[in-house]
Amino acid sequence: MKCRKCEAQLPLKAVFCHLCGTRQKALNTNGGRKSRPGGQGTVYKRGKTYTARITKSIAGVRQSKSKGGFKTRSDALDYMPEVKKAIGLGAGDDTRRVITFCDLYDEWSDKKYNGRLGRVIGKSTIIAYKIAYKRCEPLYVFQDFRKIHYPDMQLVVDSLASYDTQKDVRELLSQMSKYAMKMEYCEMNYAALLDVINYRSPEKDAFTDEEVAALWRDYKGVDREGNATQPHPFTGFILIMIECGLRYGELSTIKKENVFFDERYMLGGIKSVISRNTPIAISDVILPVIKEKYDAGRTKLLHMNEDNFYNAYYATCERVGVRPLNPHCCRHTFITRLSRNGAPLFVVQKGARHADIKTTQGYTHMNIDDVINAVNSLPQKSCAL
Fold first, then answer.
1. What is the pLDDT of residues 133-174, one digit of tens each?
2. In angstroms, what CA-CA distances link 173 with 145, 282, 291, 325, 377?
3. Which of 77, 152, 223, 325 would be a feasible disulfide site paired with 329, CB 3.0-4.6 Å?
4. Which of 308, 286, 284 is nearest to 216 (CA)?
5. What is the full DSSP assignment across 336-348?
6. Which residues constitute the domain of residue 50?
7. Which CATH number characterizes residue 317's domain?
8. 140 and 285, same structural domain?
9. Is residue 28 one of the residues assigned to a domain?
10. Is 49 within a domain?
11. Any residues with CB less than 8 A from the CB of 358 and at least 6 apart, and which?
């Protein structure tokens, strides 16, 4: 062969010219032919004849069948359907493994939930995956996962009203598809193409002191003038979340055996290692409320499913006349009130059970009045006239 630039004579497989240093074009070692698709077999020349060969892999065990002695490549290709039949494949089949949607979930979840597919996931994440799987019921009928395409998955997502639910289902389908690709059950992750509803993150805020006071009156059954009214026990759960900085998932999973009144703390974090291992402080003001729920509960403080809790929560906000903030804003209220009352930031972080102090800073909601009060508290001697 000759150099593409200086035309010097070079060895057949030379990569660079020894005279001018020019890189040469790569040779097509496949004779100009394109590779056949996976699972369709291969034809290769052995001596003066051609051989048709196909390989089938099941559960990691490779099986192959071949037939040689063909004079031309075309003859070998024409015989390929017979080779497929000999190994147990139809003429239009390929060698990819077949698995149902439900069986794939069982296989994937068994490994995922037990930490055999990377890092160990938390209990709350497992619960979210299980709920998302129930939402995928229309896909249960598919006997071959690779026959589930984008339109099928998108119909499931579109049938869900909540952004969070859509997002969880998309994540589950994506995780299952990635695993299926590794195990040769499918060739593409259609879940990566799924669309969810337009979502605007709700404004995070904290209840004001007046709103917290109104919730306390509703719980105790007292109006603004101090007159007795109908008490509402459920409001006590909202106050526990506000006074202890609890997430709903934590409140719903705290067991009575993890409430320690003498030591004045509870255990029940679910989101991270730090959250799970850091005690939840029980203050003087919330102690009687927790004791009431403790005595009324069977094994846990709260015995309500998520839908019933959220319905009761927003109904309480409407009845009391406070803003219908997201239940997670109870946690924002706890952190904001600690900060406003002068607690050091590292103490607030400890109370919130955050791994990163930057996360705690994002939970504080200060307004212009807080800034004015802070400035007014500074020494004013230098300003005296």
1. 999 999 999 989 989 999 999 999 998 877 778 899 999 999
2. 11, 41, 43, 31, 55
3. 325
4. 286
5. HHHHHTT--HHHH
6. 42-87
7. 1.10.443.10
8. no
9. no
10. yes
11. none
